[in-house]
Amino acid sequence: MCIDQKISDWKFWLGFCFSIFILGFPESWAQPQEPKTVLVRIAVFQDLNEFKLSIKGEFQIVELSTGRILFTAKNLNESVVKNLPDGIQIGSQKYSESKITITPLYEATIYINRQRFRGIMNVVRIPEKGLLVINVVDLEDYVKGVLYHEVSPRWPIAALKAQAVAARTYAFYRMESSKDKDFDLTNDIYSQVYGGKNSERYRTNLAVEETRKKVLTFQGKILPAYFHAACAGHTEDVSELWKEDLLPLKGVKCPFCVNSPHYRWKKNFRLKDVQDKLNSRGYNIGLIEKISVLERNRSGRIRQLKITTRDGHTVMISGKDFREIIGPNDIRSNNYEVIMFGYYFDLLGYGWGHGVGLCQWGAFEMAREHYKYEDILKFYYPGTMIQDYSQAGNAAP
Hints:
This protein is of the alpha+beta class. It has 8 helices and 22 strands. The strands form 5 sheets. Strands 1, 2, 3, 4, 5, 6, 7, 8, 9, 10 and 11 form an 11-stranded mixed beta sheet that branches. Strands 13-12-22 form a 3-stranded antiparallel beta sheet.
């Protein structure tokens, strides 16, 4: 090779390296970036006058609305957080702000009332109500904190995976409808029971990781993926309960939960207690003589009841409202028979929960029979697709 050629090559590589230094690598060479983390906001405590807070590791306290750093420290021994008329007090430190964020740094851990949480905590002072505590956490970590409360970690892995996808999908759906609110979900039965990091277990975490980002969609939109404990033979049509009418939630015959411990139940009630609960909700009825089933829907659940009082008056009430007023833990489902005797009555019922969507004990039996998690989901949510939420189009929050 001649000297001129060597000099030419040297100049080429010098120029190439200089251009990379100034301009960076071409876009086609760039390493793929991790997609943006999806965060979910869970109201873990509401209407508190005070609570206990401790932090292991470095943390910051930040004004929520502006991001202004108010305080930085390493470790916080257990301190009482108090609701003040003009702000929030943490230990001996007082803040005039009504909305603050507690941000752990370098994987520090937050404990609220000795319960361990991932992510950050927003503390909001609501006048005449108290303190609202909101855990803001990665969606996948949220699902890890949910699964243990919804299904047993000892269940077959396919059932755990089906529940993970349903829980993730439901959370995603709620996130879309609550953008203008302080939080997306609560941590109780009215959303999904959530216990933070304390509730994580190896097998439920594995189910979350192996279905990571998977959600259910229908016609390109996130499905409200409701679920319940046991349907006792037929899942419910969502339109019987809520203002929704979706093909995947019209209800299906389910032969799988017949051996569930919740397939049958019995509960005794005193008529006077039922009368008092109804009157507390504005029904204004006298002593009850009889409760009769007037109408059932396609799934066998009660659509309407008739209550007859001892002075001959009658009151009509939907099965849904009656269960809500008397209590969903006492009336486990809307599928029951009423047995009257004197001043008492028994309900002989079937199933547990509202009945819409995934039947958890049905999923358990399907998994035992070697169905895959995808098969379970398509059985209880017919017509849906299982997609990565980054591909769910306009359904993403």
